[in-house]
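USER:
Working in pairs, take the chain set out below, taking as long as you need, and write a paragraph about the fold.
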Amino acid sequence: MAARTISAYADEETARIVERIAQLEDRSPAQIAAAALRFYVHLPAEAHAAFRRIEKVGTIEDMDALAREITRKTVDAEWEVAHRQFVAEMTVEDGPADEDSILAEAVRQTR
């Protein structure tokens, strides 16, 4: 995919955090900013507006709570993707068809 540079201004604290994250993840600050932009542009306009209102009138605790909720949903989504991928890659072998055959196979495998 072709890429182009977009400039952005950030306060010193945000810039330091981006640099620290980039170092920890062995990525460039530009890659971190691009990932943040990809996330933001996939949000609907209502989410953009709500985020701006929270930034403007909310407290740091409000922003922390929002970050926790986003983290929770992101981890949940990651689990769903991994689960879906795991299920898609599963193969089911033909096994015993009746209870006696299942019991016999279980006994055989535990010996």
Notes: The mean pLDDT is 92. The chain has two domains: 10-42, 44-90.
